[in-house]
Description:
mainly alpha
Amino acid sequence: MWRWGRRRPWLVIGMLGMTVGLAIMGLTNTVPAVAVGWLIAQIGANAALAPFVAVLSDQVPEFQRARISSMISIAQNLAILIATYLSNGLKDNLAVLYIAPAIPAILVMTWFAFVLPDKQLTIKPPRLDLIGLIKTFWVNPIAHPDYALAWAGRFLITLCSFSFTTYRLMYLVNRVGLTRDEGLSVQATSVLIYTITLMAASFVGGQLSDRLHRRKAFVFAASALFGLGTLMLAHTTTVSGFYMVEAVMGLAYGVYISVDLALVVDVLPNPDNAGKDLGVFNIANALPQSLAPYMAPFFLGIGSPEKMNYPALCYFAGICAIVGGVLAIFIKKVK
């Protein structure tokens, strides 16, 4: 297996595992089966994502990393936009909705895996026991403070994002006063606005970061602006205002996501072990997505038995993003 290289096996196996999970979700109609499918899909997707991002460390020189990172973020968010419209068009055919997008994903990722100039392992890695496996999920924050700060910053801005997006539709219904169908329509348009501004900002941000050889200023400014945009949502009660805030947040997150990944690669504890360290870093993406739906109701319930205190939720989320941006200032290894 390791003759395939360090990254190639996981790219292919991860995509296949994700597809199996999606197929289970699309072809079953019970909650336990869907939950199992979602778990398998998440394991597969993350198994492929960590080595895919590690290619940035393996193959791309430092002076090009933000530009390549911006291309990754553009592709990722364009896919989310397409998925949003697919979900509306195929909401009555879940099997096609879940399985059809996986087919081109398998083809493209397999093609990428086999053209990738992947390094082969010359020495078979040691066999991992349970304790050794658990240790792979730990990077000492005292020994590697820059990496820890970058991890915490990503955790906080992701927590900010999912604290609100999880309740976006209910916000539009309960705070802006739309019907559910109107809310779905506005939500789809807002995702379009967000993605267009994100893609443009990501391209420009990546170019500027590489040319100026600066990372921290971009990450701080983008995180702070994203947090301020979230705070603005606390006082937004109109559709036009909501669209404007989505544009601001798309601009901020586009710059952030293009530069932050390059910053993370620059501060990895061990570039020769990038796959493992980026896998640990991916926890900062995945964990907040799971925590946000459980934390948000606490803030929604402050002074509101109906759990509709959206300003409190927005303030909590916005402060998280701003604090995450401040943490970037204390990173020492990069400018």
